[in-house]
Design goal:
By secondary structure, the chain is of the alpha/beta class. Helices cover about 40% and strands about 15% of the residues. It contains 10 helices and 11 strands. The strands form 3 sheets. It has a 7-stranded mixed beta sheet. Strands 6-11 form a two-stranded parallel ribbon.
Length: about 325
C-alpha cells in the first residue's frame, strides 16, 4: 500500500472515531457535567460557575429544533455509517417481506446495556439495512435525553422522540412505527457482568399501546452491544443509596460510571449483530383487559427467547446467558 493510500485510510479511521465519539460523548459528557454541576452547587466557591453552566444548558435547550440543516444531515449520515463500519454491524431481518409500508409497528429492542448504541445506529433512515416497511421509524427515548444541550437537537434530527404515552399514541395514529427498549433504565439497575438481564415480565405498557392501535409487536436483539462499554454502577457501600436515587430522579436514568477505549467515551470496537424478528399481530382494542395484554406480552417474551436461542450461535455468542425478569 502506498503512503498516499495509507494516509487516506488513517485519515478516514480518525474521522470515523471522531464521528462516533461525538455521537456518544454528548450523552456521557452532558450527564457527567450535570452531575458535577449539581454537586458543586453545594460549595460556596463553586456555586457560581456551576449555576452559570446549568443556566447555559437551559438556554441551549430552549433553542428551537426545526429541520436539520443540509450539512448537519450529511454529518449525521456519516456518523451512522461510521458507527456501522466501526462495529462491523450486521442486521438480520427474519422476514423482511412481512413489514408492509403504511403499517405501524412497535419494535421492542433489547438489551438496554450501559448505552443502547445499536438503536439509533440501526433504526435510522441512514441505515441501508433496514427493511422498507420500517423506514421512517421513530426512536423513543427518555425525555431527559431530549433536554440536554446539543444532544437534544442531534437526537431529534436523528429521529428520536420522547417516550411518553401521548406522544406514542400520536405517532401510531399517524402510522409511524416506533422502536423502544421495553426494559428501559430499570435494566441498568439489574445489569450483571457476564449476563444479559431483560426486564420484561412487568412491562405491559408498550403492549397495551400497540393493541390500542392494532400495531404488530416486533422483537429485536442487539448481540454484542453489551460489550461496547465497561461500567461500574455507583452504590453502597461506597455511595449511599439515597444519593444514587436522588440523581436517578433528577436525571431520569440510573447513573453509571462507564468508559470505552483508553477510559474515553469512544466505545470498544466489537462486532455487533442486530436481529429483527417476525411481527406478532395484535388485535385493535381500545381498552384491552389485563389478561389480553398479558397474553400478547407472553407471546413477545417467547419470541424474544427463541430469537436469542436461535441466533446466539450464529452471532458468536454461544456462551451468552440471559435472564428475563
Amino acid at each position: 500500500m502506498s503512503w498516499h493510500a495509507s494516509f487516506h485510510l488513517h485519515l478516514r479511521e480518525i474521522a470515523m472515531t471522531v464521528a462516533i465519539s461525538f455521537w456518544v460523548a454528548q450523552i456521557i459528557g452532558n450527564s457527567m457535567g450535570t452531575i458535577v454541576a449539581l454537586c458543586l452547587l453545594c460549595h460556596p466557591w463553586a456555586c457560581l460557575p456551576a449555576g452559570i453552566f446549568l443556566l447555559l444548558q437551559l438556554a441551549v435547550v430552549a433553542l428551537p429544533v426545526g429541520e436539520a440543516p443540509y450539512i448537519v444531515e450529511r454529518c449525521i449520515h456519516f456518523a451512522v455509517q461510521s458507527a456501522m463500519a466501526y462495529f462491523s454491524c450486521k442486521v438480520t431481518v427474519e422476514d423482511a417481506e412481512a413489514f408492509k409500508p403504511g403499517q405501524a409497528y412497535v419494535v421492542g429492542m433489547e438489551p438496554h446495556s450501559a448505552l443502547p448504541v445499536a438503536m439509533p445506529m440501526v433504526f435510522s433512515d441512514h441505515c441501508d439495512q433496514l427493511p422498507e416497511g420500517l423506514r421512517g421509524i421513530k426512536l423513543l427515548a427518555h425525555t431527559a435525553a431530549l433536554y440536554m444541550p446539543a444532544t437534544r437537537h442531534f437526537w431529534w434530527w436523528l429521529g428520536v422522540r420522547p417516550i411518553d404515552k401521548a406522544n406514542i399514541h400520536k405517532l401510531l395514529e399517524a402510522k409511524n412505527s416506533v422502536v423502544l427498549v421495553p426494559g428501559g433504565n430499570t435494566e441498568c439497575r439489574m445489569m450483571k457482568h457476564g449476563q444479559e438481564t431483560l426486564y420484561l415480565r412487568k412491562r405491559l405498557g408498550f403492549v397495551r399501546l400497540a393493541m390500542n392501535h392494532g400495531a404488530p409487536l416486533v422483537p429485536a436483539f442487539a448481540f454484542g452491544q453489551t460489550d461496547t462499554y465497561s461500567w461500574v454502577r455507583p452504590g453502597p457501600p461506597y455511595v449511599p443509596q439515597r444519593v444514587v436515587d436522588f440523581f436517578r430522579r433528577v436525571l431520569g436514568f440510573v447513573p453509571l460510571i462507564m468508559w470505552g477505549v483508553w477510559f474515553s467515551a469512544v466505545p470498544y470496537k466489537v462486532p455487533m449483530h442486530v436481529v429483527i424478528g417476525r411481527p406478532l399481530q395484535t388485535p385493535q382494542m381500545d381498552n384491552p383487559c389485563d389478561k389480553d395484554v398479558q397474553h400478547y406480552l407472553d407471546l413477545y417474551i417467547t419470541a424474544m427467547e427463541k430469537l436469542c436461542d436461535k441466533y446466539k450461535h450464529e452471532t458468536g455468542h454461544t456462551d451468552m446467558q440471559f435472564q428475563i425478569v
